[in-house]
Amino acid sequence: MRIARFTDGEDPRFGVVEGAPGQEVLHVVTGDPLYAPLQPTGETVQLEDVRLLAPTIPRSKVVGIGKNYADHAAEMGGEPPAEPLVFLAPNTAVVGPDDPIVLPPFSAEVHYEGELAVVIGRICKDVPLERVPDVVLGYTCANDVTARDVQRTDGQWARAKGFDTSCPIGPWIVTDLDPGDLRVTTRLDGRTVQDGRTSDMVFGVPELVSYVSRAFTLLPGDVLLTGTPAGVGPMDAGQRVEVEIEGIGVLANPVVRR
Length: 258
Ligand code: MG
Hints:
By secondary structure, the chain is mainly beta. Helix content is 12%, strand content 40%.
């Protein structure tokens, strides 16, 4: 099932997406599926007639994982870490499909990082590996946009990976998906710049959710970024970046400087 959050000019609503690419229809549901059972209203709208929003605004946080693909760790000049490398981004970093990525004035080197994102479905803490499927609502595409120069000079990653618009997610949440071996590609102005598979993660989704839940209580709607494959590189104002994940869809965002 694909769950989208959208607006037709009024307050955000949620819908279940059905139909082939280019012909999608949203079956509108009552309330927020994170907090209430899915209840169709009976209303349907064409996808082309609405604007998709970030499928969740994390209630408390985005948890990121650094260097979780060996080939990306190598291009950053090192080995993958022995344990997951965890960082946080604020929920104010999150934007949705087609929202602009605004290059921050304090950086001259902003990179795309296409990633699989996990959306948490229920409050949880100290989740054993075998219980992880119970706490995951589903998966979406993410771009862990990174001010690479600031990441190097700050040491801490908060500013480099947490500035406004640095975490586009979407286009929707797919609930019935095995995250174990999905193709992840990133395109910059239509040119493929990253092409990896989630099977190449150093730590898989169950390990990551379990690991971070030992440090943080996870809330419904919180997002876990799972790391990026090799091929990261700079984006400039005027470019368009797309993250596509097999079984989910395409997240596209323009890049601007203000
Ligand atoms: Mg990343």
